[in-house]
Amino acid sequence: MATKDQNDTVIERKEQQEKLQPPPMYQVLLLNDDYTPMEFVVAIIQEYFNKDRETATQIMLKVHRDGKGMCGVYPKDIASTKVELVLTHARKAGHPLQCVMEEA
Ligand code: TYC
């Protein structure tokens, strides 16, 4: 919506608000499988999501029980990089671990 101030300056309120919206954030999730060792998943969560061992273990057990679990929320490019790093590490180690991102 365009309005004018006392000096007849046009202020594009709506456009300004839209420009100031924060960037969309993305959850990075791990998915359960029957083969990846629990200890490997805990190490992945500690290394790539900066969690202490206890928190990483809780997240791993939630994934094991519920089928998926959230490791962190990040801007799109950071989330995407973490997914790639986790998948590359898991494949190099020969594990089928799946890691995905979805808009928060
Ligand atoms: N379900 C696996 C097992 O019993 C452990 C596991 C947990 C695998 C979390 C993947 O994202 C995962 N060894």
TrEMBL record:
<dbReference type="InterPro" id="IPR003769">
    <property type="entry name" value="ClpS_core"/>
</dbReference>
<comment type="function">
    <text>Involved in the modulation of the specificity of the ClpAP-mediated ATP-dependent protein degradation.</text>
</comment>
<dbReference type="GO" id="GO:0006508">
    <property type="term" value="P:proteolysis"/>
</dbReference>
<comment type="similarity">
    <text>Belongs to the ClpS family.</text>
</comment>
<comment type="subunit">
    <text>Binds to the N-terminal domain of the chaperone ClpA.</text>
</comment>
<dbReference type="Pfam" id="PF02617">
    <property type="entry name" value="ClpS"/>
</dbReference>
<dbReference type="InterPro" id="IPR014719">
    <property type="entry name" value="Ribosomal_bL12_C/ClpS-like"/>
</dbReference>
<keyword id="KW-0378">Hydrolase</keyword>
<feature type="domain" description="Adaptor protein ClpS core">
    <location>
        <begin position="22"/>
        <end position="99"/>
    </location>
</feature>
<keyword id="KW-0645">Protease</keyword>
<dbReference type="InterPro" id="IPR022935">
    <property type="entry name" value="ClpS"/>
</dbReference>
<protein>
    <recommendedName>
        <fullName>ATP-dependent Clp protease adapter protein ClpS</fullName>
    </recommendedName>
</protein>
<dbReference type="GO" id="GO:0008233">
    <property type="term" value="F:peptidase activity"/>
</dbReference>
